[in-house]
Amino acid sequence: MNQKGLSVKSVVAIGIGTAIYVILARFTSIPTGIPNTNIEIVYPFLALLAMIYGPIVGFSVGFIGHALSDFLMYGQTWWSWVLATAILGLIIGLYSRKLDLEHGVFTGKQMFFFNLIQLIANLISYVVIAPIGDILIYSEPANKVFLQGVTATATDFIAILILGTILLKAYAATKVKKGSLHKD
Prior knowledge:
Number of strands: 2
Distance between the termini: 21 Å
Radius of gyration: 17 Å
Strand content: under 5%
Low-confidence stretches: none
Strand order of the largest sheet: 1-2
Oligomer: single chain
Helix content: over 70%
Largest sheet: 2 strands, antiparallel
Order of helices and strands: HEEHHHHH
Mean pLDDT: 93
């Protein structure tokens, strides 16, 4: 069936995903010692959603969730980081088209490429987009924002590497394998 726009499933995933994003961002951030830079447990969840529902949901949950959580926690929104998180969700979601998680497939090779893609997405998002946005929009000092970006990239990569891979493997394990005699 060829539909225009978002499916109901995607809209629901964006709504519920955004709510969970805000809760996780609020209650699971672990300070790194670098100002305004935390180890974020929310990013493995964003990666899971992007891999299950695709790039539009990944982008939307990253954008809306980060914007809302910034506003609720700090009283202002850092748009450069909001855009960076949305791009992270988008890139990971684009990679989801290469996998077949719905049929219980998530091999070691796929795990490797998933983590390579999420590393590239983190580098683009937090070493390029966020710091350059901070410099252009907020006139922040370059040394500060690039240190924040590199720290965020490293911690987010590790969080997604460990928790994101576990979540995706667990999700795939709940699905009926392609070629199985089991019927839903």
